[in-house]
Design goal:
Elements lengths: L10 E4 L4 H12 L4 E5 L2 H13 L4 E5 L5 H15 L4 E4 L14 H19 L3 H7 L2 E6 L12 H21 L4 E7 L7 H9 L3 H5 L8 H13 L4 E3 L2 H12 L1 H7 L1 H12 L1
Parallel strand pairs: 1-2, 1-4, 2-3, 4-5, 5-6, 6-7
This protein binds NADP nicotinamide-adenine-dinucleotide phosphate (NAP).
């Protein structure tokens, strides 16, 4: 299949002020896509916009809290006003949360779903009628490699990311006949503000602390793989094929997964006793 020419095709991205969203915005702009940058911290968005404008790209910054549907509606509206249409939307904003489920409050559980799952839905849904009307488009959802398994201490986070995957799978079938592609993105541990935010929200960051540094990827690597999926639409973006197949095996044989994840389970129990 020939590559899709992305030049002049607008994309709206949430969480575009840092990490994976920022890196994706930059590679998309370099590929000629006008980019609408969404996120809560305006200074971060303006910084990305300046960087894009310095190399001749086009970008707008739209202060957006993804937990607000009116904000997300405005992000899509502003994209169309500024660039004439919307070709792609990327529900990327999200945060990590590291705590055993029995220590997680109802408010914490609902809050992470509000951002990671409903925030993603709030972002992509207003773009859909326009894409369907145009008969073309691409929806991207930033899930995680652990959207495919239940990692101890990450139950609520995995649940939000797994929910995204299931909706993406259903949407892919619903939208394909209408000309709209759907892709879920599954990063492994990536060097962004993610770990710092998880530390701030839950006071813990063991996954990042314990991970050998050589396994931590850059946001640019995820961004390049995502850009390739925009050019040659695919169902899922993975930047670690070892993780992809290992987690597929875990799903096929949950007992093997339990044995492998034992180490995390023990540390969870230790936390509980502290
Ligand atoms: N880093 C990893 O190891 C990793 C691995 C797998 C998946 N992921 C996923 O990758 C995505 C991007 O994360 P990242 O790693 O790039 O971390 P990051 O640097 O912390 O980026 C997260 C972005 O989301 C934005 N955000 C958070 N809450 C928001 C809200 N309510 N409204 C609007 N924007 C909001 C933040 O911007 P503001 O604070 O300015 O709003 C920030 O720019 C997330 O969905 C995350 O779950 C990350």
């Amino acid at each position: 299949m020939p590559a899709i020419d992305l030049s002049g095709k607008p994309i709206a991205i949430t969480g575009a002020g840092s990490g994976i969203g920022r890196a994706t915005a930059i590679v998309c702009a370099r590929a000629g896509m006008p980019v609408a940058l969404g996120g809560r911290r305006e200074d971060k968005l303006l910084d990305v916009r300046s960087q894009i404008e310095r190399f001749g790209g086009r970008a707008i910054a739209v202060t957006t809290d993804v937990t607000s549907q009116p904000d997300c509606d405005a992000l899509i509206e502003r994209t169309c006003e500024a660039f004439g249409s919307i070709y792609a939307v990327y529900g990327n904003a999200g945060y990590g949360f590291e705590k055993p489920i029995h220590q997680t409050s109802d408010a914490e559980l609902r809050a992470i779903f509000e951002t990671n799952f409903f925030g993603c839905m709030n972002t992509i849904r207003p773009a859909l009628p326009r894409m369907i009307h145009a008969g073309l488009g691409h929806v991207l959802l930033c899930s995680s490699c652990i959207g495919k398994i239940g990692l101890p201490l990450y139950g609520p986070y995995c649940a939000t990311k797994g929910a995204q995957v299931l909706v993406a799978r259903a949407m892919r079938h619903e939208l394909k006949p209408l000309g709209v592609h759907v892709t879920s993105v599954h990063p492994v541990l990536t060097s962004t503000e993610f770990a710092e935010v998880a530390q701030r929200v839950t006071g813990a960051n063991r996954m990042a602390d314990d991970m050998p540094r050589f396994l931590v990827q850059t946001p640019e690597r995820v961004a390049r793989a995502t850009l390739a999926a925009l050019r040659w639409p695919r169902t899922e973006v993975w930047t670690s094929h070892t993780t992809r197949w290992l987690f597929a095996l875990f799903n096929a044989t949950p007992r093997l997964a339990d044995l492998a994840l034992n180490r995390f389970t023990h540390s969870s129990a230790a936390t509980d006793r502290e």
